[in-house]
Amino acid sequence: MTDAELARDIATQAGALLLRIQDECASGDRGDREANALILDWLETARPDDAILSEESADDLARLERSRVWIVDPLDGTREFAERRDDWAVHVALAVDGRAEVGAVALPRLGLTLSSAAPPALRDPQTPPRMLVSRTRPSAVCTDVAARIGAVPVGMGSAGAKAMAVVRGEAEIYLHTGGQHQWDNCAPVAVALAAGLHASRVDGSPIVYNSRETSIPDLLICRKKWAEVVLDAVKGCGG
Predict the structure, then answer these.
(1) Does 151 lie in the same domain as 107?
(2) CA–CA dist 31, 149 (Å, integer)
(3) Rounded Cα–Cα distance for residues 51 and 61 (Å)
(4) Residue 238 confidence class, pLDDT cut points 50, 70, 90
(5) Which residues contact 99 (CB under 8 A, 6 or more apart)?
(6) Vertex 181: Cα angle to 119 and 185 (nearest 5)
(7) Which of residues 7 and 239 earns the better pLDDT score?
(8) Residues 115/203, Cβ–Cβ less than 8 Å
(9) Contact at 8 Å (CB) between 102 and 3?
(10) Do residues 195 and 219 make contact, with C-beta atoms less than 8 angstroms apart?
(11) What is the pLDDT of residues 172-216, one digit of tens each?
(12) Rounded CA gap, 74 and 31, in Å?
């Protein structure tokens, strides 16, 4: 089984487990815990020589000595999960030498798992562009950028759901400046890059994974035609 197939299968099975939990009690804490156990057990069996960085496990800094590190978020969008919404996700990614090489993002309520191995073909973009922002706490920078470029802000839940909405053609831009961690965007970035989208920090630099500090303060995933426009707008508003 290839790494991409493994990531896809694990994300899909973790998503199925989370759906059962959601039907029973919609407990985000239980979902995080049980999905994390499933993912770690599978990875430790299938790829015992690789390191793992998970949001729901203690960070073993031995990963810094490894070339291959699985970066996972067992339940991205705990609030949305507890509210029985559709916009939550499961992230399973493999970073190799700091790059997001393989990724799978499951959207269980939609019955979808998007993989870097076989991303969907990009649809024709819309104008004005739709820009995905946090549904509960959009940053001032994102609001300013949307106004500067004439984009239509669209609120949505988890990072994975927003990134995959761009991959699926439901929006053109996903801009985030409110702070994230490696597990929030490694799998989405891998899928987005495989689909032919732009993915970077908001200063245009590439995102580096498996660094000691897990924080990644900002992120841009968008159609390539909008990348320079958005990056310039971020500079213009001091982001």
Answers:
(1) no
(2) 39
(3) 9
(4) low
(5) 206, 208, 209
(6) 5
(7) 7
(8) no
(9) yes
(10) no
(11) 999 999 889 999 999 999 999 999 999 999 999 999 999 999 999
(12) 8
Clarify whether residues 220 and 141 are in a common domain. yes
Q: Give the whole-angstrom CA distance, residue 29 versus residue 75.
A: 9
Closest C-alpha among 110, 156, 158, 120 to residue 12: 110
Residues 49 and 88 in one domain: yes
pTM passes above 0.90: yes
Which range (25-39, 86-100, 102-116, 182-196) has the least confidence? 25-39
Helices (H), 59-216: 78-82, 140-149, 159-167, 182-194
Domain final residue pick, 88, 115, 142: 115
Joined together, the tokens standing for residue 169 give: 């053609």
- Are 66 and 140 members of one domain? no
- Quote the CA–CA distance of 63 and 140 in Å, as a whole number: 35
What pLDDT does 88 receive?
A: 96
The percent of the chain in helix, strand and coil, each rounded to the nearest 5, is 40, 25, 35
Residue 10 lies in a domain: yes
State which residues form the domain around 66: 3-115
Are residues 142 and 230 both part of a single domain? yes
Please check the confidence at residue 14 and state whether its pLDDT lies above 90.
yes
- Residue 136, pLDDT > 80, answer no
Pairing of strands 68-76, 51-54: parallel
